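sanity check this record:

:::
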Amino acid sequence: MSLALLARPALRQQTLVRARAFHASRPARSTHDDYHHLPFAWPTNKTVWAAKVTTYLVLGFSIPFIASGYQLHKSAGGSD
């Protein structure tokens, strides 16, 4: 008989005891009046924040199109 077969029940028992012993002292949720749907504080000047977000999104979305246009222009041998 293998030693691994003898060790399995003891290991399984130790794992079950460890799993049962885990408990939380209090719920991991905050109170309902302390809920914020954004992971950061809302800025005071919303116009500047909207301009920054719009710029970020437009630039991020346009980079693949600019890169593909550049690659197509480069591969066509255009020396304009």
